[in-house]
Amino acid sequence: MNQSGMKEYIEEAEKALLHTYNRYQIVLDKGEGVHLYDIEGKKYLDFVSGIAVFALGYCNKAYNDALKEQIDKLIHTSNYYYNVPAIEAAKKIKKVSGMDRVFFTNSGTEAVEGAIKAARKYAYLKDGTTDHEIIAMEHSFHGRTMGALSITGTPKYREPFQPMIGNIKFAQMNDFESVKNLVTDKTCAVIFETIQGEGGIYPAEKEFMEQIKALCGEKDILLILDEIQCGMGRTGEMFAWQRYGVKPDIMMTAKALGGGVPVGAFLMTERVAQQSLTSGDHGTTYGGNPLAAAAINKVLDLFEESHIIENVNSVAPYLEKKLDELIEKYDFIKMRRGAGFMQGLEFTRPVGETIQKALDNGLILINAGTHVIRFVPPLIITKADVDNMIAILERSLS
Ligand SMILES: *Cc1c(COP(=O)(O)O)cnc(C)c1O
């Protein structure tokens, strides 16, 4: 494939696809481990992993084989019947999360929708009224469907699509008083990302988590944690909330859960399950179908067999050290935030140009807001990959 090959594809794409993304000008073809290749054969070191999705890296043979095997057996059943992969996946996700009940979805935003419905139903069963309120956080991101968008704390994402679903209030992450001040008799849930992703990599503080948990317990408000980006081993625990020991009533996961196959899930405690969604309240044609469930099963098996979380914990301190050295070295790099393999480096200037230069130099990075470079690599990266990444990034800074 020659240079014009890539250009022509991009021209065709811009005529056929709805233009909702300003895409980088490359056409990706295949992946292997921590590397991606475009259709001209150029190799890229990938520190984005399809936005925190490809935890196991690209073309993991055991994962691919499991999918192929399931494809030849059964791909879809609908949810009117049981299927073994979904039962296995449910048992496994219960075990690693400590939650009691799971509903499988096809995406993160759908998991958020389900969580909102569960919270509203819980409150409805409690007092018979329907105008309950949800407290979400400024700078949060929960997805693009109307419910998830309504609790997303970036006004520009919401503005053109008003009206949102009602009775949503926004507090400040890590400012307990700002949450407490919004609580009324109608509050049914407090929802936030354990580590804010799109908003710029802002981890919840332990004290904030504990205070919210206590407040929720006291007022019978549900604590809902969005683990869609920060979950699945990325922070060195299976779910980021496990680092704090603050267990939610409802949680969502997606992104890395299927290792590349589109899946999501919302999970809840038995107490909430017994007093919220019941037959007829919620559904999905595809959610938890045998192919998606086979992906989840293999991902969770490989997490254990390949010691994925151990790798995060062994390499992440090195990544942090290397990023911190950049702060010392360059006065336009302000600070680092994050945990494990979910890191943000905040610049005093916009990062778009640096990310473009890195791409030209064979390194895939992504922003989180205008001034933060986000590092969400496959969870299999080594110290050598970190060194390569830092070398290319430094070449791309000037
Ligand atoms: C990506 C993301 C979502 C939405 O997931 P989709 O699969 O894109 O719908 C929701 N919450 C968080 C924290 C995310 O990072």
TrEMBL record:
Secretion signal, residue range per the UniProt entry: none
Gene3D superfamilies: Aspartate Aminotransferase, domain 1, Type I PLP-dependent aspartate aminotransferase-like (Major domain)
Pathway noted in the entry: Amino-acid biosynthesis; L-arginine biosynthesis; N(2)-acetyl-L-ornithine from L-glutamate: step 4/4
Subcellular location: Cytoplasm
GO cellular component, one term: cytoplasm
Keyword annotations from UniProtKB, A to Z: Amino-acid biosynthesis, Aminotransferase, Arginine biosynthesis, Cytoplasm, Pyridoxal phosphate, Transferase
Keyword Cytoplasm found: yes
Binding residue positions for N(2)-acetyl-L-ornithine: R144, T284
Documented EC number(s): 2.6.1.11
Catalysed reaction equations from the record: N(2)-acetyl-L-ornithine + 2-oxoglutarate = N-acetyl-L-glutamate 5-semialdehyde + L-glutamate
Residues that bear N6-(pyridoxal phosphate)lysine: K255
Molecular function per GO: identical protein binding; N2-acetyl-L-ornithine:2-oxoglutarate 5-aminotransferase activity; pyridoxal phosphate binding
Leftover remarks: May also have succinyldiaminopimelate aminotransferase activity, thus carrying out the corresponding step in lysine biosynthesis.
Subunit architecture: Homodimer.
Name of this protein: Acetylornithine aminotransferase
